[in-house]
Specification:
The structure is a single chain. The chain has eleven helices and ten strands. By secondary structure, it is an alpha/beta fold. Strands 1, 2, 3, 4, 5, 6, 7, 8, 9 and 10 form a ten-stranded mixed beta sheet that branches. It is globular, with a radius of gyration of 18 Å. It binds guanosine-5'-monophosphate (G) (2 copies), manganese (II) ion and sodium ion (NA). Keywords: Membrane, Transmembrane, Transmembrane helix.
Length: about 250
């Protein structure tokens, strides 16, 4: 059986799952989680999410895959709500999702029938996926933002987003790609880029999440620069939902 056929079968059988990685605020509290797709093809053998998404795009079933992710996210958020928890949750989407009429209708339907969801659900799109899709994509995102969805530009800084595009894009959050953090705080040039990005986000009134925080030195340095949201292995790696229940991280 080819990998892609196995993946299709796994998706149909709902054998994929979402793992969660926390994002923390300046006070060090978890305020949000990113949902990351996991396919355990065989016991202990996880296929990288990037590969899964790439296969789904290549073979034309990224929308059903993202639809599964969206439904799982809604299920998790509903559980949290029932427990009185107020965490946000972000999911990763692909460019084709946004311009797909059915997937778009699913999002609109959620916003209409469960308006509380749009405040806690964030849609992450990579900078690259947004640029490629252009005008239609732009219009769809504008509608989603009007409906109240939070839109994050993922891997920010690695694509070709121009500054002019950035001022027009209906985003609410920038997620600075972790490659910008590798040399911080020693690399003076990288520090300047980081400082400038923090200022840029403030000027554009966008939230900024810095990804890839791995050391306490980086965390303290980022705090001093005025960075209020971070994600990275320092705080936690992506883990199964069962893990987070055990961690009792749900008590803020
Ligand atoms: O979690 P991991 O390091 O395996 O993620 C690798 C890449 O896969 C990341 O860039 C992430 O954005 C992407 N990814 C993770 N989960 C999903 C998902 O549910 N959908 C899509 N389209 N991409 C995902
Ligand atoms: O591109 P995106 O932000 O969606 O990628 C998320 C992926 O990045 C997750 O799958 C996670 O495994 C990975 N990641 C998260 N935090 C860190 C980190 O601190 N260091 C490294 N190297 N990878 C990370
Ligand atoms: Mn992401
Ligand atoms: Na990223």
């Amino acid at each position: 059986l080819q990998l892609v056929d196995e993946l299709k079968a796994a998706l149909s059988a709902h054998e994929l799952c979402l793992w969660l990685q926390p994002k923390v605020n300046a006070a060090g509290q978890v305020y949000s989680f990113e949902a990351l797709l996991r396919w355990e093809r065989a016991p202990g053998q996880f296929v990288p999410a990037q590969r899964v998404a790439q296969l789904a795009e290549q073979y034309g079933f990224i929308v059903p895959l993202s639809s599964f992710v969206l439904n799982e996210a809604v299920r998790i958020l509903t559980q949290w709500r029932d427990k009185g928890l107020t965490f946000e949750l972000s999911i990763n989407l692909a460019g084709p999702d946004i311009i797909d009429a059915l997937f778009f209708a699913e999002l609109v339907s959620l916003a209409t029938h469960q308006p509380w969801l749009v405040d806690v659900l964030e849609l992450e799109l990579t900078e690259t996926s947004i640029i490629i899709q252009s005008q239609l994509m732009f219009e769809k995102l504008s509608v989603l933002k009007k409906l109240g969805f939070n839109l994050a530009i993922d891997d920010f800084g690695t694509g070709q987003a121009s500054l002019s595009l950035l001022t027009k894009l209906p985003a609410t959050t920038l997620k600075l790609d972790r490659s910008f953090l590798t040399g911080v705080p020693d690399d003076a040039l990288q520090v300047k880029v980081l400082q400038t990005t923090i200022q840029l986000a403030k000027a554009l009134e966008l939230k900024l999440v810095v990804e890839g925080v791995e050391t306490d030195q980086q965390r303290r340095f980022l705090l001093r620069l005025g960075c209020e949201r971070m994600q990275g292995y320092l705080f936690a790696r992506p883990n199964s939902q069962a893990y987070w229940n055990r961690q009792k991280l749900f008590q803020p």
